[in-house]
Amino acid sequence: MDKKRHLTVIGFDFGTKYIGLAIGQTLTKTAKPLTSITNIDGIPDWKALKKIITEWCPNAFVVGIPLNMDGTTQPMTFYAQQFVTQLKERFNLPVYEIDERLTTVEARSQIFSSKGFKGLTKSAIDSYAAKLILEDWLQLPEH
């Protein structure tokens, strides 16, 4: 990646029913939750996703890859990696993968701390988890 260029990046918390999205950029290394989109029978709502991508014009994507606590793969790992392949093919942008272990737990905790039980909606949790995934990636030394 060109270090001199400031990039806008969309982060994803992939799930078989919902995919959380966040937007961030490399200049401040910060991200914010956007929304979540649905998966119908395991197929992402590509139309909704294209609309978001058209609106934000990202330079790259970051997808959280679910792993077991010991770092081994699990069934969801395969589905998330399939999603990575589909993103690359559909949008012709770089897609980076990052370990997403415990991001949903942390998202729930942070939302509950700031908004209480009523803030714990599925969409809020998924998009906040995507924010945490993207922030982890943005904090890597090469970004």
Structural overview:
This protein has helices at 46-56, 75-91, 103-115, 122-138; strands spanning 8-13, 18-25, 30-40, 43-44, 60-65, 95-99. The protein is of the alpha/beta class. The protein has a single domain, classed as YqgF/RNase H-like domain (Nucleotidyltransferase, domain 5, 2-Layer Sandwich), CATH 3.30.420. Helix 2 (75-91) links the parallel strand 5 (60-65) and strand 6. Helix 3 crosses helix 4. The longest helix is centred in the middle third of the chain and has 17 residues, at 75-91. The mean pLDDT is 86.
CATH H-tier superfamily: YqgF/RNase H-like domain
CATH architectural name? 2-Layer Sandwich
CATH class: Alpha Beta
- Please state roughly what percent of the residues sit in beta strands, choosing from under 5%, 5-15%, 15-25%, 25-35%, 35-45% or over 45%: 25-35%
Unreliable residue stretches: none
CATH structural fold name: Nucleotidyltransferase, domain 5
Distance between termini? Answer: 8 Å
- Approximate shape: globular
Write the layout of secondary structure elements.
Elements: E1 8-13, E2 18-25, E3 30-40, E4 43-44, H1 46-56, E5 60-65, H2 75-91, E6 95-99, H3 103-115, H4 122-138
Parallel strand pairs: 1-5, 5-6
Antiparallel strand pairs: 1-2, 2-3, 3-4
Provide the descriptors you would attach to this structure in a database record:
alpha/beta; about 140 residues
